[in-house]
Amino acid sequence: MHASGEMFVTGRITKTDHKNSDSFCAFVGQFMQTVTQSAEYHGQKIVMVVDNFIIQHSQKTTKFLEQYSDQLILFAPPTDSP
């Protein structure tokens, strides 16, 4: 999710008015469904680069992400990286 509230899913932009755990989980769910159902997906791990926003570490998000633990890796670059 971009700081402006835009969410990018495989070249499409979806606008959200709320930046919270619910919207992040909805984004991840939509993203995973789109990616894993594509012809190019063959079970490989997916790395999602995130900005370390607090909603990405909430209890709700952590619980939601458990279902994707074999497929998805969230990577948050160090806060001092350019």
Low-confidence regions: 1-8
Number of helices: 2
Q: Give the strand order, joined by hyphens, for the main sheet.
A: 1-2
Shape verdict: globular
Give the number of DSSP strands. 4
* CA(first)-CA(last) distance: 18 Å
Number of domains: 1
Beta fraction of the residues?
15-25%
* Global structural class: alpha+beta
Report Rg. 13 Å
| Rounded mean pLDDT score | 82
Biggest β-sheet description: 2 strands, antiparallel
Helical residue percent?
Answer: 25-40%
Keywords:
82 residues, alpha+beta, two-stranded antiparallel ribbon, two-stranded parallel ribbon, 28% helix, globular, disordered N terminus
Can you offer a commentary on this structure?
- It is globular and about 35 Å long.
- It has helices at residues 21-36, 59-65; strands at 6-9, 12-15, 46-49, 72-75.
- It is of the alpha+beta class.
- The model is unreliable at 1-8 (pLDDT under 50).
- Helix 1 packs parallel to helix 2 (59-65).
Quickly describe the structure.
The chain has 82 residues and is an alpha+beta fold. It has two helices and four strands, in the order E-E-H-E-H-E. The strands form two sheets. It has a two-stranded antiparallel ribbon.
